Amino acid sequence: MKTQIEEISPVKRKLTVEVEAEEIDKRLNKALKEIGRKARIPGFRPGKAPIGILERYFGRQVKEELTRELIGETLPKAFEETGSKPISFPELEKGPVQRGKTFRYSAIMEVRPQIELGTYLGIEIEREEVVVTDQEVEERIEQILKAHGKLEAFSEGRPIKEGDYAILEYRAFEDGKQLEGIHSNNFLVEVGSGNFHTEFEKALVRLQIGDEKEIKVKFEPDYFHKALAGKEVLFKVKVLDIKEMELPELTDDFVKGLDPEIKGVSEFREKVKEILQKEKEDKAQTEAKKRLLEKITQDLEVELPETMVESELAKAVESVEQNLLRTGSSLEKAGLSVEKLREEMKPSAQQRVKNFLVLTEIAEREGITVTEEDVENGFQGLAASTGQDAQVLRRYYEAKQMLEPYKERLLEEKTLNYLMEHAKIKLKKAS
To answer: Does the predicted TM-score (pTM) go above 0.85?
Structure first.
């Protein structure tokens, strides 16, 4: 076997493999003889037909099978011999298997680019100083009380005010045409929360049960609901009911009902403060890692393998589709197309691929690897956050071929943590 590697681009290689004519003839004869032992050919007893006759009857079949065998045997060896590490299965260009002739094929493959890294250790970055205020603690406690509150009907009729919960029937229109999928016969909105849209909720104030109103809202281009983003929409609304939230009293008994280990209200406040502190610490750390990675990658010119970009893009589009389906919508209902989504999401997909390539290059240089302990700890953390069993999660990832991508994410995180440990962190006061 002979191999030759040719660089087509920084991320593409052409690997050519040749198998000598002598080996082809030997393998052809062996395969034909094995068939000849059992084959029934007119005029010949089994095992007595000449090679030439056998080749006339079975040559095409044998050559096709031999082609597959030769590639299956020689391609992994050729990768090892040339040090090639393709990131996806290569595109094969193969010639015919012919007696007395060398068999030649080539594999066009994408590979990871060589990256000329600049400085990545000891970089100075800012990290927000974390402070939890008493007001934030009280706001979180109020959220907890609301989560355990009960919606009660008014004892006497009155119009909607901020803080009330309105139950609505509505339809949405754009340019006089009803928007498909944007309607409800039983929609609950907390007036003044901004959870739906501030202008929409303001227009509900002072309405009473049975009132109908047309509300015009101009949605921001980055509004979270893609079907409404950037549109001017007319809502035809009818108030079906108005309720107010009756909150439980914050007592020792209430907090013990949430967690028997908490002794009373004062300890509960401390626990809430700890949770907020952890959340803010995690957020500040995530933002700092993001800034650090931006500093490392911003001036690097990296040619990206299209296979990796395409894979990242496909996952991003699928994620949007799945999220829409969970809300009872779809790309079509949201006024989106796969082509438009791909165009919008390609820059971020390219950046994620660039980040991954840079981080894995740093990991290789610094000898950072993902151990079995890292994987186990990762699944334990995932189990704790989802309320599922760690081993069940692992078996699911293995069955869905998600384990290797999961290990890649762990390697990225481990490398980022290493970079943070070696960074010069400057604390800045929270804004």
So the answer is: no
